[in-house]
Amino acid sequence: MTKSLKPATLCVRAGYVPRNGEPVEPPIVQSTTFKYDSSDDMARLFDLEAVGYFYTRLQNPTNDAVAAKIAALEGGVGAVLTSSGQAANFFAMLNICEAGSHIVSSSEIYGGTFNLFGVTLKKMGISCTFVHPDASDEELRAAFRPNTRALFGETITNPGCAVLDIERFARIAHEQGVPLIVDNTFATPINCRPFEWGADIVTHSTTKYMDGMASQVGGCVVDSGNFPWDQYADKYPGLTTPDASYHGLTYTKAFGKMGYTTKLVTHLMRDLGSIPSPQNAYLLNLGLQTLHLRMRQHCLNAQRIAEFLASCDKVAWVHYSGLPTDAYYERAKKYLPNGSCGVIAFGLKGDRQTAVTWMDSLRLINIATHVADARTCVLHPASHTHRQLSDEQLRDAGVPADLIRLSVGIEDVDDLLDDIRQALEKV
User: Fold this and answer.
1) Three-state secondary structure string covering the chain
2) Chain-centre distance of CA 273, in angstroms?
3) Taking the complete model, does pTM exceed 0.90, yes or no?
4) In angstroms, rounded to a whole number, what is the distance separating the alpha carbons of residues 225 and 179?
């Protein structure tokens, strides 16, 4: 049913269909455990021979309804909610990697993800090679090794606002026999569906636009069901060979296109437990119901503000793919024809202190670590989210020291422009 519905309808109705006399909102099933009439009923669940619920660390009806909605929006076969966007990226990789594996990633990604791949996974024996997303095909191919298990990128980079050439990344990943994993947080499936351009797995920080109200922290991993794991069985034994912890079950054979998603739940959620609470999933669902409306307004407001900044003599540069002068304008027309997002990257003429003075002079706009909120937020990454990186690492990550990340909300744009102007008068 959901395949033929438009995104706006999916935002409101996908994932949960109430039966006669049932609530129209997915109920909050705030329970850790579920009761069964016989030992055999529960045993069949533990053996993955039956579908149902027995412990919320693995699955919960509220969480599953919201995950199903996101899967429908992305056009995937299945999805799993996680406790944060960081957990989503971690689980997406760990589901197919182990000690001795290697991944290739775009260097222009969120600072937390950069550290996850470059520092934390390294401690677990999983190495990463970072490559500039606009590197040549030859440079990108040169980063791959025999033990490479995935290629990763962000649809719209955080905080630099570069647009990924998804189709090219997918082509090269598939040449090398590995899946492309794309973090689609900034674009959301309203403005870009990476599976349509060849991506295999999509991740989200649902904390951002999907929630939209800064009310919950969460993440999601969505599988397209398209990557041929069995064709590369030697690379992905966790999916393609018998699992001793489940009586010799093989995920790709037992669950077909749902093999990747099922393994993520039965292994990673079972053992690491990075789940969202059903209450958080409920709040996320409320945000999803207006995602299509909010994204439109975020983009309209951001376009107006980006145009103002581009014309201001106190502004050194602006990165927003909706501007005809932007380096990613043509690429955005291909991947983001309905708009990109509400995030603008720009720099003021001056030094780091100039950015700080401007931010401290704002009266309406929030200085906050958050991004992609209904409220407009601003951050200086070199001083905040990326402060642990050296100047060289900042450059490699596409985060110049003067970069200001302005996340434009859905307030009246004229009020936002007034606040930006009065703060500019202070610098």
Assistant:
1) CHHHCCHHHHHHHCCCCCCCCCCCCCCCCCCCECCCCCHHHHHHHHCCCCCCCCECCCCCHHHHHHHHHHHHHHCCCEEEEECCHHHHHHHHHHCCCCCCCEEEEECCCCHHHHHHHHHHHHHCCCEEEEECCCCCHHHHHHCCCCCEEEEEEECECCCCCCECCHHHHHHHHHHCCCCEEEECCCCHHHHCCHHHHCCCEEEEECCCCCCCCCCCCCEEEEECCCCCHHHHCCCCHHHHCCEHHHCCECHHHHHHHHHHHHHHHHHHHHHHCCCCCHHHHHHHHHHHCCHHHHHHHHHHHHHHHHHHHHHCCCEEEEECCCCCCCCCHHHHHHHCCCCCCCEEEEEECCCHHHHHHHHHCCCCCEECCCCCCCCCEEECCCCCCCCCCCHHHHHHCCCCCCEEEEECCCCCHHHHHHHHHHHHCCC
2) 19
3) yes
4) 11
The first and second tokens of residue 58, run together, are 């693995």
Buried residues in 98-121 as b, exposed as e (16+ CB within 10 A): eeebbbbbbbbbbbbbbebbbeeb
pLDDT in tens, 120-132: 999 999 999 999 9
User: Rounded distance, CA 149 to CA 157, Å?
Assistant: 22
CA atoms within 13 A on the CB side of 173: 27
pLDDT given for residue 1 in this prediction: 46
Identify which of 48, 49, 82 has the alpha carbon closest to the alpha carbon of residue 63: 82
* CA distance between the termini of the chain: 55
**Amino acid at residue number 332:** A
Task: Say what the pLDDT of residue 397 is.
Answer: 65
Whether residue 54 is predicted with pLDDT greater than 90 in this model: the reply is no
Q: How far is CA 359 from CA 94, 126, 312, 410, in A?
A: 38, 39, 16, 19
Strands 315-319 and 343-348: antiparallel
Alpha-carbon distance 388 to 191, whole Å? 32
3-state SS record for 242-297: CEHHHCCECHHHHHHHHHHHHHHHHHHHHHHCCCCCHHHHHHHHHHHCCHHHHHHH
Phi/psi of residue 412, each to 5°?
-65, 125
**Residue 18, exposed/middle/buried by CB under 10 A (0-12, 13-18, 19+)?**
exposed
Backbone angles phi, psi at 166, to 5 degrees: -60, -45
Residue 3 has pLDDT above 60, yes or no: no
